Amino acid sequence: MRWLVGWSSAATAHGERRALLPVGAHLLWGDPDPLWAVGDWRPHEVRVVQADPETRLAVLGVCGATDDQLKVGLYAARGGALRHLTAWPGSYTAVAQVGRRITVTGDLAGARPVFHTRWAGGTAYATAALPLADLVGAGLDVGHLAALLACPDAPEALGTGTPYEGVRRIPPGHALVLRNGTTESASYEPPASLAVAAPQLAPDRAVDGVREALVEAVRARLAAPRFAPHPDGPDRLDPGPVPGMGPAERRAARGGPAPGIGADLSGGSASGTLALLAAGLPGQPGRINGHGERLLAVTFNDRATQGGQDHHEAELERARGIADDPRLHHVVVAAGEEALPYTGLDTLPLTDEPGPSLTLAGRHRSRLLSGGADHFVGNGARQVLDAHPARLADLLMDRRRRHLLRPVTALARADGPSAHSVLVPFTVYRAARKLARTPYATGIAEAARRLREREFADEPVAGGAVDASLAALAWCRPGPAARWLTGEALADVAVRLGDAAHRSPAAGRPGDRRARAALARQAADHRVFEQAAEVRSQRLHAPFLDNQVVLACRALPDTLRVQPGARAAVLRSVLAGAGVRDLPPGWGVASHHPHTAAVRAGLRAAAGRLRQLFEAPLLADAGLIEARVVRTALTAAAEGAPLPLDGLADLVSTELWLRRLLARRGSCWTGAEAPRQRALAQGVVPRARLS
Predict the structure, then answer these.
(1) Among candidates 668, 526, 665, 539, which has minimal Cα distance to 38?
(2) What is the pLDDT of residues 308-331, one digit of tens each?
(3) How far, CA to CA in Å, does 516 sit from each of 154, 231, 471, 510, 511?
């Protein structure tokens, strides 16, 4: 895990200097407000420019700006223009110091969060929450865990908290500003009207903006120096010929990525777009030490649950059709039962926070081991390009009723013909109209009431598109795991929602707000995914979560977003503008995601391990669940009962994370004044009261 950490205090440069250092840190600048980069950062991922001894800028991550552009951004930040620090291509964190004022920028999606906590009369900040919890000896915030399980995509319930008491998070689209130890959260996004939509670009211009942003995001990664494993490192050791294994398979078995750049190639539109852009831009994607290499395209072939199915074979054929490009080297990773969900739970690393990706980490890692040292993934494309169902209410608020015809008609056909399909358009329209006319505070209060009264009957447990869309047409709704929480935990989250409704009587438009919340949820889970499935010496790149790409996608008109097949149409235009027009038949069609079948198979295979996990769960000690109820639900889901599988994944991942936290040894800090490592889960055992 890589992170940065620093602090700001009221002390002057001649004040007391603490003998405290983060383990494995590289000092970027010193007292009175020091900053460190911690972890296995590559040299090009840490850049520092300086205008004078008291004005400097550190950029950590992949940033496409030149040194001159960084200096211009530093001068702009000195005058208070924070947006200049966030508009460069790539995914990075910027820290600007102007005198005793320090500004740390987060990103729009939430994949690069910023955390802070009060410490030693000032404020410590970092891009990871666990080191700050270590620093101040924080305990668990059980109330936050309850909110994370009951309403995972509701900012009103989560607030700015973290699983650690006293450690706070800066919201997406904001920057942390510190002056002499005091903190302030400043938004760098332009203010939006609460009544009417902002002027929208013409569809052609908006799509051109998405193309330019994606091309620049990919180019920023290609322009970075190529990384190759150290020649004397373990990746250099090859056991020689092994029957049935080529060099790539032997390297994957040793646990190291291939040199150069790789990309997921599933046959879907998002990952395929990134692979073709990376392969088609000027320069050789795998160029190392002067030797050109083709881009490594990796396709995951799930033989355990999809083997022989027609739609699966069609997706593989599309992937092979794309990989016919001579600039691509195609690798198909065949996986069996060893790559099912819920496999490898005993070997998971401790992540900064819990997330449902923990249950899929072993499945992802088997694919990433065959990828490149820099590997593109399409995570976030659905959230930034697709229209959240609540955007239908935004269209009604703008009096654009005719634009609802095609999406509601497509929705009626999504679940196949039935006796009630003719009523679906009217039902969806009525739900969208109700949301458009419901004030924000009323919608939040309704979600709090449903939690208190345990009304979860209309949650989409069977995965139907119509049911899921109707449930999403609300300001806020309980999450899939809420049905298994105790009444005490639900009451606590209901109080949080009620307080939020009173604090924010007006909160923008429902569709835009729900879309941003869904993106933040996906970005947070992507961060957990990066840490849980991490392959040594590998970097995962998700350009769809970059600031520049998120902004370009937000400029897409709602009338374009809500049309069936809009994501594939936008990405097809992006590729056409980049010179890629020869796509295989069926490219961009709605993919069949047999996620449910794979999860049920994984639940069956891991049934014994999961029952043991919930024999005496820490979540029950915290008063969040009843162990017997969850064990019964896990057994029923494995047998095919129509239960929300995402909710069970939330419960399992949170319990796993708590156990890793309790089993942890060591600390993030060293030095004469380093705090002793404490059991951060001390608030769980014995039974904790929710706060």
Answers:
(1) 668
(2) 577 778 888 888 888 888 888 999
(3) 10, 44, 17, 10, 9
